[in-house]
Amino acid sequence: MPGSPVPASTDAGAPATELRAPWWRLWWVRVLAVFAASRVATTVILLIFAANQGQNPWTGPKPDYFSYATIWDGLWYNIVAVSGYPSVLPYTDGVHVGENAWAFMPGYPAVVDAVMFLTRLPWSPAAVLVSLACAAGAALVFYRLMLRVGLPASTSLFAVALFCVSPVSPLFQVAYAEALYLLLLATSLLLLVERRYVVLFPVVLAMAFTRPSGLAFALALAMHVVYRWLRVRRGVEPFPVRERVLSVGLTVFSGLAGLAWPAIAAVATGSWTAYTDTELAWRAPYIGYTHLVPFASWFQGADWWATVMLGVPGWIGVIALVLLVAIYAVLLFSPAVKRLGPDIRFWVAAYSLYLFAVFFPQSSTFRLLMPLFPLLGAVALPRNRWYRVGMVVLFLALQVGWIAICWGVDGADWSPP
Asked: Residue 18: its pLDDT value, please?
């Protein structure tokens, strides 16, 4: 029955089995060993790029690690931690809202602030420390999540390895909110799979104030409720009244949490569109100032990339986008993805739809795809040794490519991470 605990005897990674195992075979030791090894590799890569980094808007040439780790959005999070949010929105031309701190939610800088207070560390090392600790926690929870959906221990550990060396995993050790967000998201998915709705309330709230996610998670919860109700109708699984009330209430709560930050920005600035106008400022250099029209952004982006960057007719970009979406939708129904269970697929579908509805595709899209990390469980299924080694090498190579394109700064850089 979904929601029932996995028997300890069914998996070598279960706690009951590990009570008799030596310490180096404990599941959390293995996960943290994988995480530590991945961070050594990524640190070496980042240090090589830092040693070759020239003068840029954030640092001088050849910055030290902590300076290099706090560029780009790290400066915005630092501004939030030090100065908070503006009560008056900045305007670029007296008409359009410019880039400002309202685009960056307070969860991550608040945690870094707390660490700074407790440790007396300055911003840069405190921010990196928070990201590293949260990423390690996310790896641990992700392992338990993969076990919980029924993957073997070795497959779950390899999924964690892919998570730790993924192309955008350098964000696990820089001043970005992604590591904290992924820890909260992995925890939320594990709690959802285990039907622990009460505990989910505070986690969903914290998640909604760390990265935009409340509306997407509410949609996933709505699909979860409908799924459980249909299983009741078919006599497959009980759905007690208490769980019905809690799950529906959690769905509404998550939706409200997703709207809370735009509402706070509206009240604080006196502009009901403060948050969306701020977010739109980041796409203005590509397509100018536009209104937020759901599901239009990706088609605008496909036209821009085709005409401006590739020099081909815009309709070619649109056709390529439609084909990409169709292939992705088919993959969600593949046997490998189905192995991850319905709740993981609900989240992947909900977040993908949310991303398609509101975000503009550009270099930051690689980072915005990180919440789809549970799909790595499907990628980890093949047990061939050469496949697994090849995937790790490929992901490390893609890390180098991502840092070169998105993190490293080359003059007037138009490809932010």
From this structure: 58
